[in-house]
Amino acid sequence: MCRFIETIRLQDGVIGNLGYHEERMNRSVGEVLHEKKKFNLENILSSLTLPPKGLHRIRLIYDTEIQTTEVNPYKKKEIRQLKVVYCNSISYDFKFENRSELNSLFSQRDECDDVIIIKNYQVTDSSYANLIFKKNGQWFTPKTFLLNGTTRKQLLERKIIIEEKITINDLHRYENVKLINAMLLLDGPEIDVSQIVG
Questions:
Q1: Residue 187: pLDDT over 90
Q2: Judging by beta carbons within 10 Å of its beta carbon (0-12, 13-18, 19+), is residue 100 exposed, middle or buried?
Q3: So what's the pLDDT on residue 132?
């Protein structure tokens, strides 16, 4: 049976995006494992001893049941340069524990800190985060994402970012790029698009 990962932000005792994470877990088990399951994350997390201060990452591995839980301090990686890599066959619609294809693409980053994955000339994601690109003060995210992350969904619903078709040839039209996921919110560092290595 395949297993999934859920990564949840814990900031000073406050859990982020709980409903989005719960919805994704239930959808993953339903659509991939064809099991009707209703995880109750509030109950699951209330059984853990959670640190009241600092930034922590809660990591759940699960199938139809929670298999392991971890709570660890989180330190953001410094991302200065991104390498463009190509893969037309990659599929990561669900947050699977098996990340071998993503890890293989990440290994192609050379001296860069992470990758931008191009599928059929369309910009998708980095190896571990969704991407947003700034143009004229507005942030845009590719329609051709690999994984519809919880932070991406929330920012779209709040109309803070806009979905847009972005191809490899469009990158020069933007000023900056930013990585977003459950642990990297909109207040993270911006990377100048000149730091995207082709």
A1: no
A2: exposed
A3: 98
